[in-house]
Every structure is written in structure tokens, then in C-alpha cells.
Amino acid sequence: MAKTTTSPVRTGLVHLALITYTLIALFPVFLTVINSFKDRASIFRDPLGLPTPSVFSLVGYETVLKQGDFTLYFQNSFIVTAVSIFFVLLFGAMAAFALSEYRFRGNTLMGLYLALGIMIPIRLGTVAILQGMVAAGLVNTLTALILVYTAQGLPLAVFILTEFMQTVSDDLKNAGRIDGLSEYSIFFRLVLPLIRPAMATVAVFTMIPIWNDLWFPLILAPSDATKTITLGSQVFIGQFVTNWNAVLAALTLAIVPVLVLYLIFSRQLIRGITAGAVK
């Protein structure tokens, strides 16, 4: 069997393209972060310069923390994101296990039906969702956002996890059944530990749209007590549009958690993506 060889020139061009894309993607983040630690004059005088001791200033963060109630916004975003990801992973993994493990009438049709959720944006049902939340008395509650985001993330979770669960050895699961394990024990103790990279991939792909979303918080939970960090940032920026220190500090506070999460789960994320590509 002939081995395929990759041209060094082609490899270099691919790496160059990836490095260029990475620099373009990170440049706005870098610019936002460094300028959030400068005084107002230095932001306009030297926007690309690093914050030296002579221009270093935390006035933007002080303004945000004192007047923007960002602690509450961050807490709301964290609760909504964490709970939504938990339910997406739990229910998505259970549904994926059922679709991949058991053969029943309508199995394929059920998988295709769930896949439609990936192709049809949930925002098309905004009016119906709002009417349902009003009828249930869930407007201006974090529960409304959690329910919507769980429904939004489930189709992709089921689609990804089903493919990975089909690679888990049947012999392993049958051995567990012979040892007397219940189906729940097989799911939680045998299957889930083997698909952790896929779970991390789903968690990251689910977390980013939830954390960055402005649409549903603005419609379902616009009150001061339920604002998320993204909605709070937008309102703050609109209120202090001329105060660039506060604007950049608010954007930095909204960006940092996503970057931290990626750094924590990057290894698992890459493993999950590459495993899916190889498979």
C-alpha cells in the first residue's frame, strides 16, 4: 500500500494560513484587553502600544464594577450557562445512547428529526417561545433562558454524541450486563468516561453561543435582576458610549471567561474533533 506524502511547500502554506487566521482572530481581543488598562488619552494616542506604568489605569474597571452591576450580570450568565450545559450534556448523552444502542421502529426517523434542530434556527420560533413563557409566568426569570438554551443545544449534542457512542465496544457493554450492571450503570460508569472528549467538544460548542447571546436575554429576561453579562455590556456601552475606558473594560470582562474555558478544555476539544475526523 503506497504511502501518501505531503509536500513541505503545501504544509508550509497551510500553517501560514492558519497562523494568519489566528492572528486576525486574536488581534481585536488583544487590542481590547491592552487598551482597557490605559487612560483615555493613551487609547487614542497609541492604541497599539502596551500599557506602560505611565499610562496604566484601572478607571474603566472601577466604573464598570461600581455603576454597571457586573457582578450580578456575570453571576446570571454563569448560572444560565452552567445549568444549560449540564442539561444539554445529560439529556443529549441519554438520547444519543438510546439512538445508538437500541434498535426500534422509527430510530432513524427520530435521529433525522432531532437533526432538523441544527438546520432550523430556534430564533424563528421567538414569538411562540415568548407566548409560552408569558403563559407559564417565566418571563424575566433565568429559568426561561435555561429552557431555551437547553432546547437549542440538544440537537447538536445528540448528533455528535451518537456518532461517538457507536464506537464504544459492544463487548464492553455486554460484559457489564453479564456482571449485573443496569442500563443506567452501563451508561454512567462505562460509556460516559469513554466519550469525555466528545462531551468537552459539545460543552464548548454549546457554551459559546449561550454566553454571547443577546437575542433571548433581551426578549425573555430584560429586567435588571436577570440581565446576562452580554446584555449588561450592551446597555452599559450604550450608556457610556464616550467613556472608552469603561467600554473596553466591559468587553474584556465579557471575553475573558470564554477564553479561560477554552484554555481549560482545549486538549479535550482537540481530541474530540480529531477523533471525529479520524472516525
UniProtKB/TrEMBL annotation:
Q: Does the keyword Ribonucleoprotein apply?
A: no
Determine the domain of life of the protein's source: Bacteria
Q: Which Gene3D superfamilies match?
A: MetI-like (1.10.3720.10)
PROSITE patterns (alphabetical): ABC_TM1
Q: Which residues cross the membrane?
A: 12-34, 78-99, 111-130, 142-165, 186-211, 246-265
Positions of the ABC transmembrane type-1 domain: 74-265
Give compartment(s).
Cell membrane
InterPro entries assigned to the protein according to its UniProt record, in alphabetical order:
MetI-like (IPR000515), MetI-like_sf (IPR035906)
Cross-referenced Pfam families, in alphabetical order? BPD_transp_1
Q: Does the keyword Membrane apply?
A: yes
Q: Which UniProt keywords apply?
A: Cell membrane, Membrane, Transmembrane, Transmembrane helix, Transport
Report how it sits in the membrane: Multi-pass membrane protein
By sequence similarity, the record places it as follows: Belongs to the binding-protein-dependent transport system permease family.
Q: Know the name of this protein?
A: Raffinose/stachyose/melibiose transport system permease protein
Which species is this UniProt entry from?
A: Phyllobacterium ifriqiyense
